[in-house]
């Protein structure tokens, strides 16, 4: 699924994102509002990941997520 589709289905995507990255809060996801770069940054911040690891995990999630 490409990011435009995820952004368009953001309310549905939030639940799947919280399943994967449970340390993200509802407030985090409300502020992010579908912006991929902000999501990657918040994953990096909450989990202490490097930028590269956060990007790798996000890419894998995008590839593997089924709607």
From TrEMBL:
SUPFAM superfamilies in UniProt: Hypothetical protein YjbJ
Gene3D superfamilies on file: YjbJ (1.10.1470.10)
Residues in CsbD-like domain copies: 4-56
Superkingdom of origin organism: Bacteria
Family: Belongs to the UPF0337 (CsbD) family.
Name listed for the protein in its UniProt record: CsbD-like domain-containing protein
Source organism phylogeny: Bacteria, Pseudomonadati, Pseudomonadota, Betaproteobacteria, Burkholderiales
